[in-house]
Amino acid sequence: MPKQIYDVIVIGTGAGGGMASKTLTEAGLKVCALNAGRRLVPTKDFRNHRMPWDMKFRGFGDPDKQAQSYGFMDSEWVEGVWEHEIPFTMAPGTTWMWPRCFAVGGKTNFWGRSSARFGEIDFRAATLDGYDVDWPLTYEEIAPYYSRVERMIGVASTVQNRPSNPDGEYLPPFNLRCIDHILHSGAQKIGVPYLPDRIAQLTKDHEGSPACHYCGACTTGCDTGSFFSTPWRFLPKAEATRNLDLRTDALAKNVLVDENGVANGVAYIDRKTRQEVEVHGRAVVVAASCIETARIMLNSKSRHWPHGIANSSGQLGRNLCDHLYGESANGYLPQLLGQPSFPDNVGDNQVAWMPRWQNLQNPREEKFIRGYSVYPGGGCTEYPWYAVQTEGFGSSYKREVKRRYPTPVNFTIQAPSLRSDTNYVDLDPEAKDPYGIPLARIHFQWDENVLKMWEHSKQVCAELIRAAGGVFENSADEPAIPGWSLHETGTCRMGNDPKHFVTNRFGQTHDVPNLYACDASVFLNCTDKTTTISILAFTLRTCDQVIEKFRRGDHQRV
Questions:
Q1: Whether this model's pTM surpasses 0.90
Q2: Which tens digit of pLDDT belongs to each residue from 236-264?
Q3: CATH number of the domain at 1-40+85-111+229-319+423-441+488-558, out of 1.10.10.10, 3.50.50.60, 3.40.1010.10, 3.40.50.300?
Q4: Based on CB atoms within 10 Å of each CB, which residue in 273, 316, 376, 462 is the most buried?
C-alpha cells in the first residue's frame, strides 16, 4: 500500500492550529492535524451549571491527583484536562509555571477572551525607545486580518480611539457592572482610562453560536460555545469539508526531513499504544504553543539540522518573553456594604480594562519603557475569597461575609517582559518525558523594566481604589510566577534577516521553505495585550501564503 501523503501536517489545534486547519481545508487542501490530548465532550467535561457543592470534592478536585497546583486548572470542573504527565525542567535560578491543556482546542477551551489588537506603537516600539528591533511588518499590513478574525469569532467592545489600542469591528459591549461604574469615577479623577474590554464572547447570536447567557463558568469551559474556541467554531467547519484527518493523543516528537533537509512529515507518539507513528505531508505547520513548538523543532535533529530544524541562526528557542500577570491591588467599596448580592461576575471574566496609558507621547515619560494594561475585577464572585481574612465566628461571621459580598475589588496587571539573551528554552540534556522525548528546559527571570511596571501599577491601582471612595487593603509582596499568564512569546521570532531570525514576516522558516510556525513563538516580544487574537490574525495571514504557494506549485509532492 502506498503511504498517504497529506498536503499539510498541522501540529496543534489551539488558536493557531485551529485557524490553520479551518483555513487550509476550506481551500481544498488535505490536512492531518495532530493533537497531543483527547477530544473534550462538553456535556461530560464542562460544568453544565453544576455548583461546587454538587461535586465530590466541592469543586477543588481530588488532592491525591494534583501533582502541581494550577488553581482552578486542577479543580474538578476540568479534571484530567491540564497536563502533568509531560513535564519540563527549569534551569538554576528559574521559577516557571507552565499549565498546559493538551485537549483538542488547547487553551482556547478555557482562555480569558480579552482580544485587543497589537498596534503600530507595538510594531515600532524599538524605533520609539531604542530597545531591541522593530517587527518586520506594519499595523496596516495585519489590520485586514484582525478584521477578518473579528468578523469570524465575534468580539464585543466599543470604539475607543486610543493610540495604543487600534479599534476593530465589534459586537455590542458587555454592560459595565456597578463596581465598574464606581471604579470608572475614580479612574477619571486620577487620569487613567477605564473602558469596556475587547472580549471574544458573544453579546448577540453570531455565526450560528448563541449569545452568552451569563452562567459565569467560562474559564471551566463554555457549555454553549458562546465564546471563541476552536472545538466550537473552527473544527466543525474544517471537518465539514471532509479534508481533515484529526488524530488525538498524538504527541508530536519531531519534524521529518528528506534527503535535502526539507520537511516531509512528522513523527508522533500514539499515547494510547505508546508506539511511534510517522505521517507525511508536503508542508508542516507547527502550532503547538510557543515553548512546545520550540521543543519539537529543537528535537528535530538530522545531519542537515544538527542543532534543530531551521536553526542555522542559532535563535530557535531564544528570546523567550512572558507577561507578568498578577495582583496589583485589592480592596473593597464600602458604599456597597449590605447591598443585595447579584451575579455580577459576568461570564467569569472582567468586562472592563485599563488599556495602556503609559509612555504614549513620550517613550520615556515613566521610569520604564513601553507599558502595561490592567484588568479590574471583583463583585460577587462564585466563592468569597476575602472570607479567609474576615474576622469573626459563627452567625456574626456569616453576616459579615454576606455584608461584604458585593464590595471586593481587585486589579491584575498584564506587563510585558523585555527580550533578553538570558531568557530562552532549550532541551534538557538528561531528562526525558515518559515517552523518551527530551524535556523542554526553561531559563527565565523577570527583568528590571517589568518589575518597575509592577511597582508602578500597585501605586496607581491603590490610588484608584481610594479615589473611587474605596478602602485599599493590600498588594502582593512578590510578583507573579513566570509562565502563569500562558502568554509566552518569542522562540521562533520573525524577521527579514535569516542570520538573526528563525521565521520570515509570514511565519515561514528561513531555512526550510515548507515549514511554518503559527503561534506566539513568531512574535518578537510581548506587548500589553493578550496573544490569542493576534495568533489568529497572523496564522490567517500565513495560511493565505501557504494556499498561494500550493496554487503556484511551490510545495511539490514528496
A1: yes
A2: 999 999 999 999 999 999 999 999 999 99
A3: 3.50.50.60
A4: 316
